[in-house]
Design brief:
The structure is a homodimer of 423-residue chains.
Chain A (H helix, E strand, L loop, with lengths): L1 E3 L15 E6 L7 H16 L3 E6 L5 H12 L5 H8 L1 H16 L4 E4 L6 E3 L8 E5 L1 H8 L3 E5 L2 E3 L5 E3 L4 H12 L4 E6 L20 E3 H9 L7 H10 L3 E5 L7 E4 L12 E5 L2 E10 L4 H11 L4 E6 L6 E9 L3 H9 L2 H4 L3 E5 L2 E7 L9 H11 L6 E5 L2 E7 L3 H11 L7
Parallel strand pairs in A: 1-6, 2-3, 2-10, 3-7, 4-7, 10-12, 11-13
Antiparallel strand pairs in A: 5-6, 8-9, 12-13, 14-19, 15-17, 15-18, 16-17, 19-21, 20-21
Helix pairs in contact in A: 1-4, 2-3, 6-8, 7-8, 12-13
């Protein structure tokens, strides 16, 4: 991604008197005209503090779902270019209405659609990637004090047609715009007030994190925490955009996603995520010879089925059991792909199981501290929880366990890693 | 209005085997996905006949009203540029969905938004006028057999922002596109099946007209018949676009609006229109001296209040009563504008009356036939209906009468001019 830009290099920090901010509001914050007016008040406050503000908006809650349903009801062929024409209209409405609401408060504001800026994307309609943002005009107007209200989720393809960025794409719009406009911070307003050490609906002693590194946030997002879209975190990390996740309903500081060196007191473990979107398949008694893994995973890849965790048990009589996980939505398809190859693969049985959960312990501190994985295994063992599959990365340990132990495991691990809030 | 065009001159007539058609569908024809699919079937039929088709769509019924209400609820300041961003989204949705519905039937189709063609307008947001349409690419694709689904009601202003053409503007989009693309005919699909000699809900013996001249249609539209927008008829007349008004629900020929020389058997009177949107103001005992009319109508014009019919009675003692009509929606404003000038104008009283109706007898045959007006006055006299104000044009006689006589007058005139359908 590159930015066409003509303005002077900006060197600001978030604490300076005057800052450039991107504020992104999601659909629940814009669900009706009353809430849009509340958002306008929130934006005005920053303008009154002397800040330059660009706002990125989602569609009103429910709108995108309805538009998507219409396209599905109309045609199973699903021309993604027409899909984009239809679903992008939701953000067009909120951009115009919010600009009106700001003007009504006496704030100079105008709406911007993806094609007007333009936010140029690749040609992959329905899940396009942003390639460039022409910011010269936006930059001039922000300097002049005008608020830019940008329709999120949409761009302009090389074919001159509207593209959309995929579900949750407005987060990506906001981070990309923050990078292009060299914003001091990108505030993502949502219905939670920040990133927690664990899901507070399950772990009552979960704590809101003041700060979290990009790497950790990326793992949290891809391991099931639904606060930010994975792609927007990747983009923030690549362009060093300081992102704050905060509530659009209550006025308290949120969680800052930033560089490791901005975070002074680093915990070894920052958070514990879980994902119920996993399913497990065990291929029993598959011949234990070179090339068998390729023979199994090749057909799945051909059908665009991603495999996540993999484990193979010890061979007996030249045969072994192979266990792996796929997205729960892909389970049925994965089974039928493999059943079709049963003879060629030579396995005895397929055992699908969607009654599993993936629990992940995440923290950049793991890089320099041993024993994190060991503490996880020990804690689960003490609670009598059997670990089915394990996978690790530099800053993460994930285990697959039976779904019924989800809450027990989350609470036990949260305590074991010293994350519990003080009473 | 001019057209940027590169294609060869087209010389076709509507009866030739292959024609180029514009089809415009209104909001009730596109009210839900099921109806949009029905519209797609209707379009496919023309494609299968070998015709080239461009479709112009309105928003789903109710959508524009809802979007307009949101802008009003948000801001009384009402920046027309943001209004246009919001309300133009309705046609964007139907354009995309209809393109999908056509593709689902195996018809090659793509949607076009105003800014994509572009349909260039002036800068008057909220009620812009079309200035140019770039048709080269559309023309190429029509020749290739692709159906163009064009979002009606919208264009691109010189400021690079979306404009809208005012309520009912999709009719104008369709006629402008027909002119630019040199279409053989512009079919306006609506919830009535054509233009009638009178409102068939009142005059049960009203007949559907096979053909009507532009001039008559223009008078019918501006005298209260709500079938076509006045502006779209003007444009059709100026560019000699053959327009057919027909039903989107029942499959029968509609009414062709065309040149006088296309209409062989011309009636003296083609139709009788009425308008309840009028209100009458009588300014009593105003000094009868030069300049008094200017003194009354000047302030009204300054407040953008249009005056339609005017009559002044015979002066008595140097004072006369002046009666005129304004749009009913302007009545209160007109009264307060004049009351504010009571002293300067020197009248004795203002008598507003919104309990009136304007009845118009319309026909190009009047040009060559005397006695049309006389027959109208005689007929109304015989029914005991008092005429309050009269105005005439070359092809129209209008009278203002008490609203309670509307139905009686319409039926009596319909019979008197020999318009009644045979039993």
């Amino acid at each position: 991604m590159w930015w066409a830009q003509t303005h002077n290099k900006r060197q600001r920090d978030g604490r300076s008197a005057m800052a450039r901010l991107i504020q992104k509001f999601g659909g629940t914050s814009l669900a009706d005209i009353a809430r849009i007016k509340t958002v306008a008040e929130r934006v005005r406050r920053e303008v009154e503090h002397g800040h330059q503000v660009a706002v990125v908006v989602s569609a009103m809650a429910g709108t995108t779902d309805r538009l998507v349903a219409w396209t599905r009801e109309t045609s199973r062929l699903h021309d993604a270019r027409e899909y984009d024409v239809v679903v992008s209209s939701g953000e067009q409405v909120t951009a115009g209405v919010l600009a009106l609401a700001l003007q009504d408060l006496g704030v100079d504001a105008r709406s911007w659609l993806g094609w007007q800026i333009p936010i140029s994307t690749d040609r992959v309609h329905g899940k396009a990637r942003i390639e460039a943002i022409e910011v010269a005009e936006l930059d001039r107007r922000l300097e002049r004090g005008q608020v830019a209200v940008v329709a999120g989720f949409q761009g302009l393809g090389p074919d001159g047609r509207i593209t959309t960025l995929g579900r949750g794409g407005s987060d990506t719009s906001a981070v990309a715009l923050a990078a292009a406009l060299k914003a001091d911070r990108c505030d993502i307003f949502t219905d939670v007030d920040g990133v927690y050490t664990a899901d507070p609906r399950i772990v009552t002693r979960a704590r809101k994190l003041d700060k979290i590194t990009y790497e950790e946030m990326l793992e949290m997002a891809s391991q099931g925490a639904k606060v930010l879209q994975t792609r927007s975190v990747e983009m923030a990390m690549n362009h060093r955009v300081r992102v704050q996740v905060l509530s659009s309903f209550i006025d308290v500081p949120g969680t800052l996603v930033a560089d490791e060196d901005e975070i002074v007191e680093q915990q070894i473990v920052s958070g514990i995520a879980y994902s119920r979107d996993e399913a497990k398949i065990t291929v029993q008694k598959v011949p234990d010879r070179p090339g068998v893994a390729a023979a199994i995973f090749g057909p799945l890849a051909e059908h665009a089925i991603n495999v996540d965790m993999i484990v193979q048990n010890v061979s007996e009589d030249g045969r072994a059991d192979l266990t792996f996980t796929v997205a729960r939505a892909d389970l049925e398809r994965a089974v039928s792909v493999l059943e079709a190859k049963r003879e060629a693969l030579g396995f005895s049985a397929l055992k699908p199981d969607s009654n599993v959960v993936k629990i992940s312990v995440i923290g950049v501190g793991m890089r320099s501290h041993a024993g994190v994985a060991q503490k996880m295994f020990q804690t689960l063992f003490e609670k009598g929880i059997n670990i089915q599959v394990i996978s690790t990365s530099e800053i993460k340990v994930s285990v697959l366990i039976a779904a019924e132990y989800t809450e027990l495991a989350l609470r036990a691990l949260h305590t074991a890693y010293g994350l519990d809030a003080q009473e």
